[in-house]
Each structure stands twice: as C-alpha cells, then as structure tokens.
C-alpha cells in the first residue's frame, strides 16, 4: 500500500476522533469512532488503517488506537 494512501486513512481517522471527542469521556469517544468506521468505511479502508497502525511513521490519535480493538477486520 502506498504511503500516501495510508496517510490519507490515518488523517481521516484522526479527524473523526477530533470531531467526536468534544466533551465526551474516553470510552464513549472510542465507541463512537469504532461505530463510525465500521458503518461508513469499506473493509479495504479498515484494513489500510490496521496496516498503518503497525507502522511507527503514521501518527494515529490515541483514541483511534484504542478504537482499533473494536473496528471490524472483514
């Protein structure tokens, strides 16, 4: 996968986290991030996000990292 594509999905996931974080507790934010990504992202995009999480050169938001446990891998 190209670096540009992985950076794109990381940027999108981080933006979702930023938008959902406002005034919420951590666990609620993590649940909402995972629900959003599971509902609206194609399986290929979720796979790219998981791939990006395995590399240190992409800076995933801490909330996205926590949400990865709840994001589908199919």
Automatic annotation (TrEMBL):
Pfam families: FdsD. InterPro entries: Formate_DH_dsu (IPR021074). This is Formate dehydrogenase subunit delta. The lineage of its organism: Bacteria, Pseudomonadati, Pseudomonadota, Gammaproteobacteria, Alteromonadales.
């Amino acid at each position: 996968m190209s670096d540009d594509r992985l950076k794109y999905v990381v940027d999108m996931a981080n933006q979702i986290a930023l938008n959902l974080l406002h005034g919420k507790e951590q666990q609620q934010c993590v649940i909402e991030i995972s629900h959003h990504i599971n509902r609206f992202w194609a399986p290929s995009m979720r796979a790219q996000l998981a791939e990006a999480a395995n590399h240190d050169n992409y800076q995933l938001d801490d909330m996205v990292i926590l949400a990865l446990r709840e994001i589908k891998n199919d």
